[in-house]
Design goal:
16% strand, alpha/beta
C-alpha cells in the first residue's frame, strides 16, 4: 500500500522554492522561486542575490540609508533569477512558486515570460505600492492567475543523515 503523507505537487514545488531561498546571502530576507511546467517538471529556480560576478562582499546589504548604499539597486529578485535561469525560453503554461508575493518589477517579468500562474506563500507586503501595482497588472491580465498556497504542512524537515538500510 502506498504512503499517504507524501507532498502534493504544490507543496513539493514550494519546498524547492524555500530550499532555494537558503542560498541567498541577504541577512534580512531570503526568497526563492521555482518554475514548473504543465508536466510537473522543474524548468527554473532562483533566489535573491546580486548579479553574477558582482561581489557580495563589496556591494551593500543594508536596507536603510542613501539609495546607492542599500541593497535595493543591486539585488536581483528570486523570480527574475528563476526566469533567467530557466532551461527553456518558452515558459507558457508554467507556474511559478514564490515565498513572497512578487513585486511589480518581478510581476512584469512573470507576465512577459508567459507564466500562467503564481503560487505564493506570504503576502506580508500587500499594503505596499509595489504589490498593489502587481495585483493591478495581474487583475487586468486575462492570461495569468495567482493564489496563496493552501497546505496543512507547518514545516518540512530535510535530513542529511542517510536512512538506515
Amino acid at each position: 500500500m502506498k504512503r499517504k503523507n507524501y507532498l502534493s505537487w504544490d507543496e513539493y514545488f514550494m519546498a524547492v522554492a524555500l530550499l532555494s531561498a537558503q542560498r541567498s546571502k541577504d541577512p534580512n530576507t531570503q526568497v526563492g522561486a521555482c518554475v514548473a511546467n504543465d508536466q510537473n517538471k522543474i524548468v527554473g529556480v532562483g533566489y535573491n542575490g546580486f548579479p553574477l560576478g558582482c561581489s557580495d562582499d563589496v556591494l551593500p546589504w543594508e536596507r536603510q540609508g542613501q539609495y546607492l548604499d542599500t541593497k535595493y539597486p543591486y539585488v536581483c529578485h528570486a523570480e527574475l533569477n528563476a526566469v533567467l535561469n530557466s532551461i527553456s525560453t518558452d515558459l507558457r503554461n508554467c507556474r511559478i512558486y514564490v515565498g513572497l508575493f512578487p513585486c511589480n518589477e518581478c510581476t512584469k517579468v512573470i507576465i512577459q515570460a508567459g507564466i500562467e500562474e503564481i503560487i505564493y506563500l506570504s503576502d506580508k507586503y500587500k499594503d505596499t505600492d509595489q504589490v498593489k501595482a502587481s495585483k493591478i497588472m495581474l487583475d487586468t491580465s486575462p492570461n495569468i492567475s495567482y493564489r496563496q498556497l493552501e497546505s496543512k504542512l507547518e514545516r518540512l524537515t530535510v535530513s542529511f543523515i542517510p536512512p538506515e538500510l
